[in-house]
Amino acid sequence: MTPTAFVDALQSASLPNVFNPWRDQCAVCDRADAPSLRRENLRLFLERAVEVDGATLWIGRDLGYRGGRRTGVPLTDEVHLASASALMGDIALVRATEGPVMAERTAAVVWSVLRRVQRPTMLWNVFPFHPHLAQDPMSNRPHTRAERDATWPLLEALIEMVQPARIVAIGRDASQALTNLGVASDAVRHPSYGGQAEFVAGMHALYEVADAQLSFAGLEPPSALN
Predict the structure, then answer these.
(1) Pairwise CA distance, residues 179 & 182, whole Å
(2) What are the structural domain ranges in the chain?
(3) Which residues form the Uracil-DNA glycosylase-like domain (predicted)?
(4) Cα-flanking dihedrals φ and ψ of residue 78, to 5°?
(5) Which residue has the higher pLDDT, 53 or 18?
(6) Distance of CA 153 to the CA centre of its chain
(7) Most C-beta atoms within 10 A of its C-beta, which of 107, 139, 202, 217?
């Protein structure tokens, strides 16, 4: 599968109480062409990951409403779109929303590590979309087993396409899901629920990065759901 075909497959998916950022449009914050912009963001990001030898793949659980739902790039909020562009070879990632730029704590922690690792890294989630509560699209909820099973082929296609040198599962849910799929991975603590220090330490150990004092003061609490 090519990156373009993969993005097309994502666009075709539709599930109840799930926001698909590469298909759906948010009436509150999206530009008129937001789904198209997010598809292009992901296509460029994925193309670069496929081109690079030795790229790694970091996998979380699902999208959160403050991050990948808005940008189309998993584990990446609008504050860090420029960082994502630079890390992947100055690809042209753009905002798909209007109004103030929104930050996500989980994305801030993830990108604090990526800035130190400085290696092209594909970012993804076990469940690729944003699951939300009924009647509350700006909420986060865990995806269901049925939802995950429905999207397994997308994750398998992504791994086959990227051929990552290393897969890192971010959090217990992602680690267990990959184990169930028979995919080997290194597991680290998710930065939510006070786990940011363990997440940073775990990633630094995997990539042999010297520890540094990092500050995340003033940001939103990490989402437990992406």
Answers:
(1) 5
(2) 20-207
(3) 120-193
(4) -70, -30
(5) 18
(6) 17
(7) 107
123-134 residue pLDDT tens: 999 999 999 999
Residue 187: phi, psi to the nearest 5? Answer: -110, 140
Residue 172 to residue 122: CA distance in whole angstroms: 19
Q: Which residue has the tokens 């944003």?
A: 130
Question: Given this structure, which CATH class describes domain 20-207?
Answer: alpha beta
HSE (side-chain half, CA atoms, 13 Å) at 219 = 22
Q: Look up the pTM and report it.
A: 0.91
Q: Are 199 and 190 in contact (CB under 8 A)?
A: yes
Q: pLDDT (tens digit, 9 = 90+) per residue, 17-40?
A: 999 999 999 999 999 999 999 999
Q: What is the DSSP letter of 31?
A: -
Q: Which two tokens stand for residue 88?
A: 């992947």
* Tokens at 50, concatenated: 């496929």
